[in-house]
Amino acid sequence: MKRIEVTEMIVAAKIQKGLKWADVAREVGLSKEWVTAGCLGQMTFDKEQATTVGRIFGLPADAVALLQVVPYKGSLPTAVPADPLLYRFYELINVYGTTFKELIHEEFGDGIMSAIDFNVNLTREANAAGDRVSIVMSGKFLPYKSY
Fold first, then answer.
1. What are the tens digits of pLDDT across the range 72-90?
2. Which residues are catalytic, by number?
3. Residue of 116, 135, 117 lying closest to 125 (CA atoms)
4. Which residue of 1, 19, 31, 147 has the fewest C-beta atoms within 10 A of its own C-beta?
C-alpha cells in the first residue's frame, strides 16, 4: 500500500460517513488545519493519533502504520496548480510574495518564516457583501546565520 492510497481511503470514508475535518480534529485533539494536512498525507501522526484516525475512518492496520511514516511533503501534482482555488494561492504568492518578503526582511532582518514551527487558522467571516475566508498564518522567524 502507498501513502496516497491511504489518503484516498480517508477522503472516501469522510464522504461516505458525512464527516467534517473539524470533527476529526476534535477526536484527535489537534487543530483542524494540522489534522487535515495529516489526513491528506502532509504530516506524521504518532501512534495514538494514527490509531484514532484509523478508527474514525475504518482503516486497516497497514494504513494506520503508514500514517506514522514521515511523508514526502508537497502535495501539488503540477508546478502551477490547475484547480481554481489552489491557483488563487499561487496567484497570491505571485502578486504579493515579493511584498511579504520585503516586509518580513524590513521588520525582522534577513531570514525566513518557518513552516515547521508554524500555525495556521482558517475561519469564515460573515460579511454583508459575501462571506470572507480568513487565513491567519504564524511562523517562527528564523534568521540566517553568519559562519
1. 888 787 889 999 999 999 9
2. 88, 91, 114
3. 135
4. 147
